[in-house]
Amino acid sequence: MLKRILAVVLLLPILIILGLALLPSRFWRAVVVHEVSSSTGRSASIGSVALNLFSRNPGLVVEQFDLSNADWAHDKSLLTVQRFEASVSLVSLLRLHPVFPRIAIDSPVIHLERDSTGRSNWDFSKSSARKVRQNTSAPLHIPVIQQLEVTNGTLTANDRVRRLEFKGRISAEEKQKSTEANALVLRGKGMLNDRPFELDLNGEPFIDMQPTKPYSFDANVTAADIKLTAHTVFPHPFDFAKVHTTFRVSGSDLADVYYLTGLALPNTPPYDVSGTLERDNLRYQIDDLRGKLGDSDIEGKLGIDTAHERPKLTATLTSKQLNLADLAAPLGTQATSARKSNTLEKPSTLEKPAVAAAPPAPAPATLLLPDADLQVQRVRGMDADVLFDAASVTTEKMPMKKVHFHLRLDDGKITLDPLAFALAQGEFSGTVAIDARATVPQTDLDMKLSNVDLAQFKPKSSKRPPLEGELLGRVRLHGSGTSVHKAAADADGDITLVVPKGEMREALAELTGIDLSRGLGLMLTKNERDVDIRCGVANFHADAGELKASTLVFDTTNVLVTGKGQIDLKTEALDLSLRGEPKKARLLRLRTPITLTGSLLHPKIGVQAGKLAEQTGAAVALGTLLTPVAALLAFVDRGLAKDANCAVLISQAEQDKGVRKE
Question: How far apart (Å, rounded) are the C-alpha atoms in residues 253 and 274?
Answer without folding.
Answer: 15
